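Sequence in, structure out. Go.
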Amino acid sequence: MVKNYLSFWAIHGASISVMRNDSLLFAKGYGEADNGKTMEPGNILRMASVSKLVTAVGIMVLQERGLLNLKDQVFGPEGILNDSTYNAAIKDTLYYRITVEDLLRHKGGFSKRGGDPMFSTRWIMMQNGWTEVPTQEELMEVQLKRRLKFVPGTSQEYSNFGYLALSMVIEKVSGMDYETFMQENVLRPAGCVDFHIAGNYYKHKLPNEVRYYVQHDDEPAEEFNNSGRKVTRCYGGNNVTGLSGAGAWAASTPELALLVASIDGRPEVPDIISKESVDLMTEYFDESTYSLGWNDTKDGFWTRTGTFAGTSALIKYFPDGECWIFISNTSTYKGPGLARHTAELFDKLRAKYSTKFPARNMFYPEQVEEVDPEKEWFD
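Output:
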């Protein structure tokens, strides 16, 4: 079933992990990781916007430590990011009303008029006459000069920039760079030791990281650094590293499952955040309000998606305690729409295999007994 799915969507390789009640029941790689090398569960893959869930956990950790509050103002002289250069850039005083929670829920009011700054570095360089790729601080100034689309907190529009701002909030409040803070205070406490900020090019790939692919008919893209070169979109088309907490993390699906086990409120794996924080992150309001870090949490179905060139990812946590995770190393013409089809695949696999998984916990391999090979995996 999985192999047919990958073949239908022309996906080179994917990793799937299944967890139930915080026990890892299944982890398998399908297809190829890198030019004929078989995908293994330990391979790490870019997770795109699933990174936002990771960032949200970092914010909750800081709130629990009393270092910030979700209601804190982010911009302006009284805000967290109150650097004088940012204050000077602000032309619309509505920015002063943006809170940490607004950023988490995509309610900051940011407009994509002029392009999403996170995916428009080449245009920003051209508009400003810059010869170097803009830093996060320069992207912040570019955004702050724009007017907001709506009053913060009154509506929502998905914003990658909002999660870059949250990454910078984490740095400002913690006094550490974003990746280091997250690894030391979120990921390692959860048992995740192979989470990293991804590079932009194949030559920068991490140990155990896969190769990324686009569809064979995908047109080459202009390199994000305005070099004038044409590149494969997944290697230089976007500044992946620069996405930071909005979309730059890479990890294996078993480690991603372990992180979810550490923020789900279940007793089997100790959580790294309080039950109150878990409830805040997963509280559902309505269709016009994003959950904190999660896309949606309606009726106990928690969903987090991620997509950009070379990557499609989905976490689906079910009310019965089962969690399915899929990350591919290939993007399709469906873009973000592929997540719906992956969710349908999960439903079919659950119907057929959920009762057939052996009782085990692969988070602790030394405790896993040999099982019938026919029950070890599904095609």
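Check: The chain has two domains: 2-53+180-376, 62-174. The two ends are 5 Å apart (CA to CA).
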